[in-house]
UniProtKB/TrEMBL annotation:
Transmembrane segment boundaries: none
Domain UDP-N-acetylglucosamine 2-epimerase: 22-363
Name of the protein this chain belongs to: UDP-N-acetylglucosamine 2-epimerase (non-hydrolyzing)
Example of a GO MF term: UDP-N-acetylglucosamine 2-epimerase activity
Keywords: Isomerase
Leading EC class: isomerase
Classification via Pfam families: Epimerase_2
Family to which the UniProt record says this protein belongs: Belongs to the UDP-N-acetylglucosamine 2-epimerase family.
């Protein structure tokens, strides 16, 4: 069996790394190809997990559009797929690289395995372009590796064959086992000085395209109000490199000594920061899965989420983007011990850390037949 893995961004690399390691462990032939849709943040993860790509398309360009990414990834992947002719091409998630990878494999009649299949927000423009990418990818996929039962049900409602869908858990939980350490020491000067024992540290991440602008201003204003009223609360915000995100963050949070704006963190320090935080406030999809595995309540600052399992389980709460909603929900979670304990102790619905083993088992079983 020859397996080709394709990824292009940091989140894809994080979630694909455990599968690559499992393939290595079982000595299964594999070809690793990165598009480098993102460059710097992708390289950090590749180095952390000691992954050595066989092909690096290096398509990243400043100011690139979605069309640029699609065309350049598709052209580069076509050459690699035609040369390697794998038995299956594995892609993960919902980026433009994922859709381009599926299309490149389809054009060569190569089987496709979609890791983290079946996520749906049912709003084609939120998240954008991810909702469209995952739906388009699903049409071309032969093996749908769905993290949860509800992901499987989404695919069944759309008419996919039940025999092509496999519930595996999410590989991001597998990845946490590699990185979170009880004795971890932060190298960052700001993080190394934080009193995690006596402060309620709020880890904030925000970068979604659909939130940038007025919605982000409302979110940040709500967070600022809550922190100003809860004296032992502080915010750590690794600010995304997007200039518009940085401008809004610096303007809204300026001169507040309890809100720390830091540079984007590599994956290992980031997961260890999350493990030591009190609450996670995020518009990220992946953090909605990771934080519950660490017992951290999540406030989701989006208008809808394709990860309803966390909401249903009680590990996460969808609070929207209006200032008053963000403020009220964050302040309540900071001050209501009963509510906090209920969310922190809820069962993580995203798996047990063995998703990569299940995926490789399925590949061995199905492709051998």
């Amino acid at each position: 069996m020859k397996v080709m893995t394709v990824f292009g961004t940091r989140p894809e690399a994080i979630k694909m790394a455990p599968i690559i390691k499992e393939l290595e462990r079982r000595k299964i032939e594999q070809v690793i190809c990165v598009t480098a849709q993102h460059r710097q943040m992708l390289d950090q993860v590749i180095n952390l997990f000691e992954i050595k790509p066989d092909y690096d398309l290096n398509i990243f360009k400043e100011g690139q559009t979605l069309t640029d990414i699609t065309i350049n990834a598709l052209k580069g992947l076509e050459e690699v797929v035609k040369k390697e002719l794998p038995d299956i091409l594995l892609i993960q998630g919902d980026t433009t690289t994922v859709f381009a990878g599926a299309l490149a494999a389809f054009y060569q009649k190569i089987k496709i395995g979609h890791v983290e299949a079946g996520l749906r927000s049912y709003n084609l423009y939120s998240p954008y372009p991810e909702e469209a990418n995952r739906k388009l990818t699903g049409v071309l996929t032969n093996f749908h590796f769905a993290p949860t039962l509800s992901n499987r049900d989404n695919l069944l409602r759309e008419g996919y064959d039940e025999k092509s869908i496999f519930i595996t858990g999410n590989t991001v939980i597998d990845a946490l086992k590699y990185t979170v350490k009880d004795d971890y020491k932060f190298k960052d000067e700001v993080l190394s000085q934080i009193d995690f024992e006596n402060k309620k540290v709020i880890l904030l991440t925000s970068h979604r395209r659909e939130n940038i602008g007025e919605k982000m201003e409302h979110i940040f204003s709500g967070i600022k109000r809550a922190v100003e009223e809860v004296k032992d609360a502080i915010v750590v915000f690794p600010v995304h490199l997007n200039p518009r995100v940085r401008e809004i963050a610096n303007r809204v949070f300026k001169e507040n000594e309890d809100i720390y704006l830091v540079e984007p963190l590599e994956y290992e320090p980031f997961t260890n920061l999350m493990a030591r935080s009190f609450i996670v406030v995020t518009d990220s999809g992946g953090l909605q899965e990771e934080a519950p595995a660490l017992g951290k309540p999540v406030l989701v600052i989006r208008d809808e989420t394709e990860r309803p399992e966390g909401i249903s389980a009680g590990t996460a709460k969808l609070v929207g983007t209006e200032e008053e909603n963000v403020y009220k929900n964050l302040k309540e979670l900071l001050t209501d011990e009963k509510l906090y304990s209920k969310m922190a102790r809820a069962v993580n619905p995203y798996g047990d850390g063995k998703a990569s083993e299940r995926i490789v088992d399925i590949l061995l079983d199905k492709l051998s037949k």
